[in-house]
Amino acid sequence: MEFDSMTFPLSVDVSGSQYWIGDEGPYKLGMAATEFLAGDGDAELREELEGFLRSFGGVLDPFVADGKASEGELRSLQERAIRCTVGCGYHAVPGKIYLVERYTFTSLRDFLLVELGKAILHGNAPRQCRLCGRWYFHEKGDRTIYCDRVAPGETARTCREVGARAVFEKKIQDEDAWKIYKRAYKKYYARLMKGTMTQEEFKSWADDAAAERDKALRQLQRENISEALMAEIFRELRERLNRK
Hints:
Elements (H helix, E strand, L loop, with lengths): L9 E6 L2 E4 L2 E5 L2 H8 L4 H14 L14 H9 L4 E10 L2 E10 L2 H14 L3 E4 L6 E4 L20 H36 L4 H22 L6 H15 L3
Antiparallel strand pairs: 1-2, 1-5, 2-3, 4-5, 6-7
Helix pairs in contact: 1-4, 2-4, 5-6, 5-7, 6-7
């Protein structure tokens, strides 16, 4: 979208989660705000859009980055009202006519804030990639948290590919820790059932074991953890759970 070439007043026809700017479109709600945030446009407007997303994007959790709007951001939104006119109209495309809401905006700011607000209501929004941090378009129903650009340090693999692999490996690591814990739990529970361990002794062991398991899981959450350190964490967990 060429923001510099937009002329105001700007007429925008909205139908459902899509819209047209004159004869151009249809665009999906949220695409314009995403493109603006991903670019190097006016820094003050970008900051306002990010504040707007923090203020009203909670319905998109966990796909909107954690963080609450500050009192200053909320006050700024109240003081700087969004101005536009809204009416009903018809938008014709080959083979179809849409009944639309026709918005007329006098500034780029007002257009982007309304577009972002309506996108949030439809479940769409700009999202920051959890790997590279760049903005990309999130459409309702999309469960990914990574963009499809080439990942940092990669020549071909995308953030989505690298991130998916990292999630898979993290899941395997966590599962290994849980397997060690479950194996030990079954062993000590069998002792309890056989009467070679008292209820108090088993409870004491179980409390300690759960704490050791959670400690290992936290250690496995470190970034760029080496295979050697991983193996050491599993060895220590196994040893601590079976020392009684």
